[in-house]
């Protein structure tokens, strides 16, 4: 079946929500998401990962002690991915989670107020580039402040639409 | 109706005119009114009926403690019962209805209960409803239930939006009175993150009812200026109409903001209530005091009011309390009211001061009776006179239509006690004070016993500045300036028992608990504060005794001849005031009740017409009905038969999937499974049993070795999260020396079972490599290339049905497309999708277990898995406990098949197994049916059962007994594997 | 209700993010004998006051913690990672 049309279906099929400067939400490209499993309590691999996965285009997120997420908008080919994994050598194991977790971007003046409807994190204390795992309503979410008023939410694919719907619901007043 | 609205003054907008209705009658008020002030302005004194005796009741307070003026507000889904009119802001179109009366408020049949009052005294229920016990269900309980509660909730859905929100601050100020405002400004001006909240519609607290001036400015204007400044500070959040209801561990304060309960048409995009959970580095309690009523006869007659409330209605709402007023006081605060009444031109007939001596120099026109008390108030639905007993015992009647009373002040310390601290009685203050140890919570203002505006401002400012300084802010205490005209309420000497009382004297207005009831409780041996509360129901109404508890304790103390300190208080618990279910629920109802977890094949199943079933948070496809099928069984039977003859495809993406990596991954698996995993070859899958430490089976699944140091584990759907957490515990807590790393990949891989004699032919069309039995034998597990190398997946040759079967895992985003491809490839082989019902039938036919069998009571040998318990391994979870006496007993229930002798008969899961001829009693119970289904393969119902010594009883005739629906079926125990017991099909 | 549990990796978080397992006990050696194992699996002290429990930061860092909780007041004084040398004190 080499002529079969293989289709990729994104987890969030809904159109972006909101376009005001108060609040906007959009699904981010399902490019690349790699879960790095270091040894908890051992070396901090952030710099190593930055070196391995490049500079600006890749973004390294902390993900609990000894673990990181590498995200990028562009897909990574299977051979490139394998090559990267091999270069990690014994320092860490890597697991491709490109399809397992999806990214949603929420932004705007009111974004912090909106997130406060779900998470108990004091977002004032989260600097640009910092990440945290937390509960957003009833769903576990990885939050990263990517700019002053812009956050990236990483969520299990199966919960993606549910999280999206809940945020869209909570956003009604902005 | 006469208007009691004064011609000038008050914080109301006289230009506005708000129409509202009370018991169907149209009335008007102004913006700035509460429902209570608007009713009073319209001369409406009678607003409710009491709970037990249905006595006419009026508005007693101007705040959250109101026990009488409880009303049902709104209509339809917005109906809200037991709303305190004193806390409800007036809006145009508001509908209010009185409660607990029939047929009308003015003429209430229930008031006949008053005549029965000798029989309705304390302990009435306990004494009356004791025996015979059988009358409880039919008579007593319905009676008590009808009598209990005041308003009625609606059955209609609430149309409004509710939300929850977290907030974080350096300083939380609870109460925006003089102390709270001063504290918030002191900290806020220095840049600290401040949240200040107040339960009323305006910030200001007592300043809103105050006639004194501050720096030459009127008190309300001064309060407004302070609140306005706070609003302009970006680091300060001012929340009005917000009640702090509880103080919790971690210095978290719960609060409810009634954001749109004061508007006729709430904005549907905004919440009507918002529940705040505020994490405060420091918190200041500036909640002020509650003024206590006095316990004289008829103290509940409409027209009798708390003195401070009367002053609030007079000054803040410009409402005259009556035409001839009197004041009965135990402290100087009565003189502030006296001054303000006279200044407003309201006739003040008399001031009855219970103190023989007082320092205060009264210069007004009213008669001043020192050392006197009001023994009784007279009147029916409205006050007409009071009987005053002078110091010398002489009595006289004074005609009045309004009476203010002040029995002293109780600091509102509820929140300070929510974390377990006990209130302390103070003879100096004549009140219970906050516990000495309040950790992150500091008190300021009247709640500490401080009296007077100047002192409250100063105390609040000092506390606010100090707390901000502690957090590193250069804060200066706010200076309010000179206060003029403040009458400082010197501490009252408590007056619990009043002499000469003849009529009913109430302590707890809402529950109709009188002075005599408390006396009776002491007499009958229920003098302990906790017992008296339950015996008399004092403090058990919706107001939780805010107004009455301290008085009740004082009366108990006097009756027992001890100090209130010795009586002590009952426990303060959240919530401070009743909180709506809507606020507690927040947005989590209807569509948002709980998250939905969607399989990557959800939409695929939907487009093939699946009927879904909720399993946990997942929606799984149950079956795929086809045209002409009229029952689910028809669809399921077809799907089962098609799998057994052709090929079927089923979504198994919900299985938990965990990648286990690390140098010691194999050793780790060897310890978490009861069977051996150390030598599992790369490219192979193995069925594994996971036990709990107590030896019982926890979960099962297959684990495949992808590389020396990398495994792919699957778990059951139901236990996926639990197994991950368990493995993390083992890795982090039990064996941190092992190099093992865990990643949940459940969502990364969409997974489908392709099952049936033609499964290989179907899959071979999309899998690039050879999957013949030689190249890809039973239990092979390998990465495969698909569609000419365009995609890679993982293929496992495992079977849950006994057929030739594969599970194919592919990246979730491509899963639907791959499933489409499998359907296309299998078309010529007769492929059909099947759901979890058919999956279940197939596995029961093959004798495979699920959590129906692995139900926390079975060990491996019960299921015939004795060989999966390694004897060679030194350690694995559950090993140590498996040798216990009960777990090696010969007659343990074990897995067995069961079939009806007559194939036209059936039985249900959960039915019990009895030996043939045994009486149908639980004593004769031999076990139970754990799973059952109609088997198209066998041609009858079949079941799996856990039966005593079941493995040794194949062939025995038994009775399957369902005691609940009185069904019994004659059946035979048999080998639990109904399909291909020799496993020949697995290896084709 | 809204009580917080300190996590050495994440800071103070609401208890809804955590899962409690029970008493923080050391697992006996495989050959410790029936009595030790019965004790570990079934028998619990129920002290009034300080108590150490295993809690999992399920919706956070997914680390297992030993949380010190007072059984009488429910007050949580602090926590530490079950193996990493990190601890946190309650607010
Ligand atoms: Zn954590």
- DSSP summary: helix tally of chain B: 21
CATH superfamily of the largest domain in chain A: Probable tRNA modification gtpase trme, domain 1
The name of the CATH architecture of the largest domain in chain A is 2-Layer Sandwich
Largest sheet of chain A: 5 strands, antiparallel
Main interface by residue count: A-B, 51 and 62 residues
Beta-strand level of the residues of chain B, as a percent range?
25-35%
Q: How many beta-strand elements of chain A?
A: 9
InterPro entries (chain A): TrmE/GcvT-like
Organism (chain A): Mesorhizobium japonicum R7A
Protein name (chain A): Sarcosine oxidase subunit gamma
GO molecular function, one term (chain B): sarcosine oxidase activity
Summarize the structure in words.
- The complex is a heterotrimer of chains A (174), B (988) and C (91).
- By secondary structure, chain A is an alpha+beta fold.
- Chain A contains four helices and nine strands; from the N terminus they run ββαββαββαβββα.
- Chain A has helices spanning 46-53, 78-88, 111-115, 157-170, and strands at 24-27, 32-37, 59-62, 67-72, 93-96, 101-107, 131-136, 139-147, 150-156.
- Chain A has a five-stranded antiparallel beta sheet with strand order 1-6-9-8-7, with helices on one face.
- The mean pLDDT of chain A is 93.
- With 988 residues, chain B is of the alpha+beta class.
- In chain B, the strands form 13 sheets. In chain B, strands 8, 9, 12, 13, 14, 15 and 28 form a seven-stranded mixed beta sheet that branches. A six-stranded mixed beta sheet of chain B has the order 41-42-43-40-34-44, sandwiched between helices. A six-stranded antiparallel beta barrel of chain B has the order 45-48-47-46-49-50.
- Chain C has a single domain, classed as Folate-binding fold, CATH 3.30.2270.
- Chain C is 9% helix and 40% strand.
- Chain C has one helix and seven strands, in the order E-E-E-H-E-E-E-E.
- In chain C, the strands form two sheets. Chain C has a five-stranded antiparallel beta sheet, with no helix packed on it. Chain C has a two-stranded antiparallel ribbon with strand order 1-2.
- In chain C, 32% of the residues are buried.
- Classes of the chains: A alpha+beta (174), B alpha+beta (988), C mainly beta (91).
- Chains A and B meet through strand 5 and helix 4 of A and strand 8, strand 39 and helix 19 of B.
- Zinc ion binds at residues 7, 9-10, 57, 60-61, 63 of chain C.
- Chain C: This is PROBABLE SARCOSINE OXIDASE DELTA SUBUNIT PROTEIN.
- Chain C: InterPro entries: SoxD (IPR006279), SoxD_sf (IPR038561).
- Chain C: Its EC number is 1.5.3.1.
- Chain C: It comes from Rhizobium loti (Mesorhizobium loti).
- Chain C: GO terms for molecular function: sarcosine oxidase activity.
């Amino acid at each position: 079946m080499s002529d079969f049309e293989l289709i990729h279906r994104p987890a969030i099929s809904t159109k972006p929500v909101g376009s005001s400067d108060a609040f906007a939400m959009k699904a981010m490209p399902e490019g690349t998401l790699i879960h790095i499993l270091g040894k908890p309590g051992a070396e901090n691999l952030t710099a190593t990962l930055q070196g391995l996965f490049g500079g600006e285009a890749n973004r390294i997120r902390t993900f609990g002690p000894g673990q990181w997420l590498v995200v990028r908008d562009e897909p990574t080919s299977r051979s490139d991915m394998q090559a990267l994994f091999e270069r990690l050598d014994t320092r860490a194991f890597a697991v491709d989670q490109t399809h397992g977790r999806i990214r949603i971007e929420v932004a705007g003046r009111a974004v912090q107020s909106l997130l406060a409807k779900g998470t108990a994190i004091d977002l004032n204390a989260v600097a640009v580039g910092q990440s945290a795992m937390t509960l957003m309503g009833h769903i576990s979410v990885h939050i990263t402040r990517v700019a002053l008023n812009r956050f990236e939410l990483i969520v299990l694919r199966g919960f993606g639409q549910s999280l999206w719907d809940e945020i869209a619901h909570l956003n009604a007043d902005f | 109706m006469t208007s009691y609205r004064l011609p000038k003054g008050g914080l109301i907008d006289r230009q506005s005119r708000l129409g509202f209705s009370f018991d169907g009658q149209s009335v008007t008020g102004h913006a700035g009114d509460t429902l209570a002030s608007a009713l009073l302005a319209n001369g409406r004194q009678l607003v409710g009926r009491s709970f037990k005796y249905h006595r006419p009741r009026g508005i007693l307070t101007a705040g959250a403690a109101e026990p009488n003026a409880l009303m049902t507000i709104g209509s339809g889904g917005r109906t809200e019962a037991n709303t305190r009119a004193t806390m409800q802001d007036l809006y145009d179109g508001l509908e209010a209805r009185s409660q607990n009366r029939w047929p009308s408020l003015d003429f209430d049949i229930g008031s006949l209960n008053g005549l029965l009052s000798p029989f309705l005294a304390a302990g009435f229920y306990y004494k009356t409803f004791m025996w015979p016990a059988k009358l409880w269900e039919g008579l007593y309980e319905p009676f008590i239930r009808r009598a209990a509660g005041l308003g009625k909730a609606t059955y209609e859905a609430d149309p409004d939006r509710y939300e929850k929100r977290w907030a974080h601050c350096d300083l939380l100020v609870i109460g925006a009175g003089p102390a709270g405002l001063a504290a918030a400004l002191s900290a806020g001006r220095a840049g600290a993150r401040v949240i200040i909240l107040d339960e009323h519609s305006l910030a200001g607290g007592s300043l809103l009812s105050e006639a004194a001036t501050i720096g030459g400015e009127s008190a309300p204007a001064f309060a407004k200026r302070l609140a306005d400044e706070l609003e302009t500070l970006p680091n300060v959040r001012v929340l009005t109409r917000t009640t702090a209801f509880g103080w919790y561990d971690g210095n978290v304060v719960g609060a409810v903001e009634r954001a749109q309960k004061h508007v006729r048409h709430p904005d549907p995009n905004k919440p009507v209530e918002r529940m705040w959970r505020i994490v405060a580095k420091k918190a200041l309690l500036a909640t002020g005091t509650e003024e206590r009523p006095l316990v004289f006869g008829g103290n509940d007659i409409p027209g009798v009011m708390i003195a401070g409330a009367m002053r609030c209605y007079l000054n803040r709402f410009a409402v005259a309390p009556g035409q001839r007023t009197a004041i009965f006081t135990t402290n100087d605060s009565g003189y502030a009211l006296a001054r303000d009444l006279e200044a407003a031109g309201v006739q003040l007939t008399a001031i009855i001061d219970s103190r023989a001596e007082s320092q205060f120099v009264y210069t007004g026109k009213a008669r001043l009776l020192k050392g006197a008390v009001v023994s009784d108030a007279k009147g029916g639905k409205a006050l007409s006179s009071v009987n005053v007993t002078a110091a010398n015992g002489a009595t006289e009647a004074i005609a009045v239509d309004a009476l203010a009373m002040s029995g002293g002040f109780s600091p509102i310390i509820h929140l300070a006690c929510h974390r377990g601290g006990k209130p302390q009685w103070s003879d100096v203050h004549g009140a219970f004070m906050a516990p000495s140890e309040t950790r992150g919570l500091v008190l300021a203002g009247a709640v500490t016993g401080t009296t007077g505006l100047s002192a409250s401002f100063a105390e609040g400012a000092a506390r606010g500045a100090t707390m901000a300084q502690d957090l590193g802010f250069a804060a200066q205490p706010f200076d309010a300036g000179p206060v003029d005209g403040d009458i400082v309420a010197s501490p009252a000497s408590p007056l619990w028992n009043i002499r000469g009382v003849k009529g009913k004297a109430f302590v707890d207005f809402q529950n109709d608990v009188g002075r005599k009831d408390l006396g009776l409780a002491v007499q009958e041996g229920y003098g302990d504060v906790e017992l008296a509360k339950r015996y008399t129901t004092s403090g058990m109404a919706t107001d939780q005794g805010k107004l009455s508890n301290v008085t009740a304790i004082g009366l108990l103390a006097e009756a027992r001849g001890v100090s209130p300190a010795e009586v002590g208080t009952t426990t303060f618990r959240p919530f401070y005031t009743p909180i709506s279910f809507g606020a507690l629920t927040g947005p989590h109802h209807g569509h948002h009740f709980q998250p939905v977890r969607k399989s990557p094949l959800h939409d695929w199943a939907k487009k093939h017409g699946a009927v879904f079933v909720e399993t946990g948070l997942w929606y799984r496809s149950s079956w795929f009905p086809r045209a002409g099928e009229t029952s689910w069984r028809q669809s399921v039977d077809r799907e089962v038969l098609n799998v057994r003859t052709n090929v079927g495809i089923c979504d198994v993406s919900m299985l938990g999937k965990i990648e286990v990596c690390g140098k010691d991954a194999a050793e780790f698996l060897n310890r978490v499974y009861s069977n051996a995993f150390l030598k599992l070859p790369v490219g192979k899958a193995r069925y594994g049993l996971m036990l709990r430490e107590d030896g019982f089976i926890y979960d099962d699944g297959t684990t495949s070795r992808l590389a020396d140091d990398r495994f792919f584990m699957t778990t059951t759907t139901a236990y996926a999260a639990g197994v991950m957490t368990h493995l993390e515990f083992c890795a982090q807590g039990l064996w941190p020396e092992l190099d093992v790393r865990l990643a949940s990949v459940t969502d990364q891989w969409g997974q489908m079972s392709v099952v049936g004699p033609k499964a290989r032919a179907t899959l071979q069309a999309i899998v690039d490599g050879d999957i013949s039995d030689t190249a890809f034998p039973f239990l092979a597990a390998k990465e495969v290339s698909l569609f000419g190398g365009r995609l890679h997946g993982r293929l496992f040759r495992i079977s849950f049905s006994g057929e030739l079967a594969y599970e194919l895992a592919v990246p979730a985003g491509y899963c639907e497309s791959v499933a489409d491809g499998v359907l296309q490839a299998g078309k010529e082989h007769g492929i059909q999708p099947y759901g979890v019902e058919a999956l279940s039938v197939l596995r029961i036919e093959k004798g495979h277990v699920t959590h129906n069998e692995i139900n926390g009571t079975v060990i491996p040998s019960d299921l015939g898995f004795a060989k999966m318990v390694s004897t060679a391994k030194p350690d694995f979870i559950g090993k140590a406990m498996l040798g216990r006496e009960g777990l090696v007993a010969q007659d343990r229930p074990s897995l067995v098949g069961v079939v009806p002798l007559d194939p036209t008969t059936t039985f249900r899961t959960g039915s019990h197994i009895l030996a043939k001829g045994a009486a149908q009693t639980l004593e004769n119970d031999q076990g139970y049916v754990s799973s059952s289904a109609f088997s198209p393969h066998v041609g009858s119902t079949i079941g799996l059962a856990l039966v005593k010594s079941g493995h040794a009883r194949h062939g025995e005739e038994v009775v399957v007994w369902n005691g609940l629906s009185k069904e019994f079926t004659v059946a035979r125990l048999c080998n639990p594997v109904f399909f291909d017991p020799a496993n020949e099909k697995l290896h084709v | 209700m809204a009580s917080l549990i300190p996590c050495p990796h994440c800071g103070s978080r609401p208890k809804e993010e955590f899962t409690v397992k029970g008493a923080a006990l050391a697992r006996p050696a495989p050959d410790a004998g029936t009595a030790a194992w019965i004790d570990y699996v079934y028998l619990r002290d129920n002290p009034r006051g300080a108590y150490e429990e295993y809690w999992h930061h399920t919706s956070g860092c997914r680390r297992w913690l030993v949380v010190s909780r007072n059984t009488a007041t429910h007050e949580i004084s602090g926590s530490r990672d079950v193996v990493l040398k990190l601890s946190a004190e309650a607010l």
